[in-house]
Amino acid sequence: MRDPVKTQRTQKAQKTQKAGKSEKRQELQGSVAGESAGRRRAVMRLLRASPDPMSIAGIADELRVHPNTVRFHLDSLVTDGQVEHVELDRKGPGRPPLMFRAVRQMDRGGTRHYRLLAEILTMAFATERDPGPKALAAGRAWGRKVDAELHPPAGAPANAEEVIARLIDVLDELGFAPERRVVDGEQQVGLRHCPFLELAENRSNVVCPVHLGLMQGAVETWGAPVSVDRLDPFVEPDLCLAHLTLQGAAK
């Protein structure tokens, strides 16, 4: 008969061993990925610094790596549009070596820091004594064009129901996770997510008016019998509320 205590210890040891192997595997994968990215950057730096196109063999010699490693990274760089093939004139029998050079442009697949830009612009608004009106105007300007970009062929909504449905679609595509609500006869749109959450938590006096202006600008563009009157931020930890008014007989 098996000793249950011994069995339990064995199972625990096996789990610990598996966890250790998994951690080592993840570390190795991260190390390999980092090394690969470093080699890719090295290939790119070498081509940018070279006044003439270079061959795979030439790059491999300079970097002291295997030609297949260079070929792998060149294929990726060519696909990304950062490197291009160069055909040389034949000066004798045989096939000339395939040559490569860097494309003279910014790396469209490189690092982006849009959040930093958003923070800079938000701080610029926040230095105003009352940033709300300017932030609201910026949001309205954005709202007037955002629907056309998301739904180019679509015409203006015909009635209040279509307006609210279109507004929900726009907010959904922008990542606000909207939901339509009716509370005591009032039309509302609940926003369950904020695409600029960290900024909104620290600079709600700027970010929230931008969001209100976005909705107002979109609705105004449609010439709709609906207005977005106000936006109450964080009425719950995961909810902001936009309050709508339906005008006249279109209710």
Give the secondary structure arrangement, pairings included.
Blueprint: H1 4-49, E1 54-55, H2 56-63, H3 67-79, E2 83-86, E3 99-102, H4 114-126, H5 132-150, H6 160-173, E4 178-183, E5 186-191, H7 197-202, H8 204-221, E6 226-236, E7 239-246
Antiparallel strand pairs: 1-3, 2-3, 4-5, 5-7, 6-7
Pfam families: HTH_20
Region (Disordered): 1-37
Biased composition (Low complexity): 7-19
Describe this structure in words.
The chain has 251 residues and is an alpha+beta fold. The chain has helices spanning 4-49, 56-63, 67-79, 114-126, 132-150, 160-173, 197-202, 204-221, and strands at 54-55, 83-86, 99-102, 178-183, 186-191, 226-236, 239-246. The longest helix has 46 residues, at 4-49.
Output the helix-strand order: HEHHEEHHHEEHHEE
* Inertia-based shape: elongated
By CATH, the superfamily of the largest domain comes out as Trafficking protein particle complex subunit 3
**Biggest sheet features:** 4 strands, antiparallel
For the termini, the CA-CA separation is 78 Å
Structural class, by secondary structure, is alpha+beta
CATH topology of the largest domain: Muramoyl-pentapeptide Carboxypeptidase, domain 2
Region (Disordered): 1-37
Biased composition (Low complexity): 7-19
Pfam families: HTH_20 (PF12840)
Protein name: Transcriptional regulator
Summarize this structure as a short list of keywords or feature phrases.
251 residues, alpha+beta, Arc Repressor Mutant, subunit A, Muramoyl-pentapeptide Carboxypeptidase, domain 2, 2 domains, 4-stranded antiparallel sheet, 3-stranded antiparallel sheet, 8 helices, 7 strands, WH_DNA-bd_sf, Transcriptional regulator
